[in-house]
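Project channel, design review

CF: Before we commit to the Dysgonomonas termitidis constructs, I'd like one complete example in the thread so the newer folks can see what an input/output pair looks like. Taking Peptidyl-prolyl cis-trans isomerase.
RD: sounds good, go ahead.
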Amino acid sequence: MNKKLFALIAILCPLAFFFSCSTDDNNIVIDEEWKAYNEKQVADIDKSVYQSRESESKNGTIYFKYIDDYDAEITKTASTKITDTQTPYFTDSVAYRCEGFFLQKDGTKYIFQNDNNGYILRGRVSDYIDGMRTMLQNMQKGKQVEVIIPYQLGYGTTDYYSTSASGTRYIAVPAYTTLRFKIYLIDIIPDNPGEFDQK
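CF: and here is what came back for Peptidyl-prolyl cis-trans isomerase:
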């Protein structure tokens, strides 16, 4: 009896794995259930709440809505040389606060990037993932958004790794994940050497 049960399990386990996963052209295992779950999130976006914008690369669409989650007092650190109507160029840098997260299969929020209690991030627009570049290039200083980025405009078909404080690498974002960010654009730093030099 035990031998028959063992044989049945030995047959069914690989089949279950086969039907929930597949491989791409590079023989990388794809979690089809996770991929479908994330694609459904994008398909189910409430278009009456979220605006859509085609990505700068024309490889897909991001969805965003304006929010009021962050403390406006941080804007006092922003440059006075940038007008409220300017948006960053691809070659500009930005100062911002950000929380990055995705929804797990049970609907709970998994935060993979937090704003560290008000820590201001800085970076060049061109260095970010496609969906983030698109959002930043359409934001004005002092604006806050929540943006949903389909995996094609995020980390794509590969896992995104991070490193813990102890130096251990781990998967921070699985492949095929729909990303969500809350972004507060604090400042735009033009790609212009000497722009903020004292005169």
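RD: helpful, thanks. Helices lie at 2-20, 32-43, 130-136.
CF: Residues 5-19 have pLDDT under 50 and may be disordered.
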